[in-house]
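Morning. Coffee machine broken again, so started the prediction first thing and wrote up yesterday's gels while waiting. Chain of 457 residues, entered below exactly as on the submission form.
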Amino acid sequence: MTSQVQVFVRRSGYKRGGLKLATLLEMLLYMQVLLAGFIGFGPFLYGDRLGQETPAAALLYPIRSLATVGIFALALLFGARPPRTVRAAILLIYVLYLAATTLWTVDRAITARAAVDMAAICISLSALCNGLSTSRSINVLLNVLVATLVVSSLLAVTMPAIGVMGAYDSWTEDQAGAWRGLFVEKNALGGTAAIGLVVMVRSWQVWTMPTIIKAGGVVAALVCFIFARSANAWVGLAAMGVATILFAGNPSRIRAALTWTILSAIVAVMATSSAVLTALDFLGRDTTFNGRTPIWETSIDLWQNAWLTGYGYVAGTSKTLQPILLQTHGVAARHAHSGYIEALVETGVIGLLLFVLLFLACIWRASTLPRSTPPLDRQATTSLFMILFGSMVMAGGDVNATRLVGGWGAITWTALICTVCLPRASGFLRNRTQRWQPRSDEVVASAPLREDSAQRV
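Came back before lunch.
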């Protein structure tokens, strides 16, 4: 007696170019890690670590933008198209607003080139992610995370002059010797490692790489996380751990609302109790969050003079905020040390509200999965949620989580745009009892099995 077993896979909405689109997405992310990461802030492009540009630095944005547009053109050739969702409309409005800040910025050249670069990357990511299944996009993100963390580990061990923070880069003496790998500072490496550790473990079954590479990625993430010595990364890891426990089980809107209520209550209790001081003592920090609160106060004072529209995208920090911070707080204070405060300084209340609206819309969508979602895409979307949630938490203490600069920002924005491309979940309440069933065109293989094998299946 023999039986038939059918093997199902979820196909991309595009008939051609699925694997090619994944390759292009991986190329785009590697380009972000290399060009906008350590090299973007290294001595080749800048006369010193305070941001005095050399002539080569002026070529960074145009080169990256042209390469990004080239990848976008290839994606269109392979059948990719931008998404058409409400979240995509919010993203478009946000990018257009960044470009609009050129009208009142303190330096039009800097804001214009940064806004064009941001638009090119977001449009390219939207087309690429919209042409791929969620599980394939997560595989690309995992591959980039592993490569980034492994190279960062090797760089810190073999070339400590580059991969390890020195006294000149450090806010306090205890930060000297912390790993930063391919990143400008240790917090970016620690945050990327925290996200990588959680996502690699959660996406183990979705990840298609050999087991030895998976294990090596987890080890590299753990080593980078420990030796980066980032308190902000510890906070993010703890938040993602709590979210993992609360979001266990079948996702639903009711469960998501309950989870968000519990998370908000935890944050409120922690913010008003002595537990914060105990945690800070454990991490070797003080009540100023290692000198951040004075920087925040200076940044807020500056923002109040242009509270509605800010001083211009990117230029608001490099030309207005950074000189004040360097003069007031020293060489290590090159930015606001908070993604949200920096967004206020650069884009004002309008820009921050658009950014937060976009982030919350994507996080909410990733936390409310219809049961009709294919199993692999369900697990992959949960991983997208963890990336966004961890970055949202850690953005309170670091700008790298939210700015499209370097490996961490590239991973965050790719996850964000992958969520932008997800279809609407409004059918969940109407179809909450329906589970995923493969369509007839998704049957790709049939093979006879012996009776004992069929019983096991």
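The radius of gyration is 22 Å. Going to sketch it on the whiteboard this afternoon.
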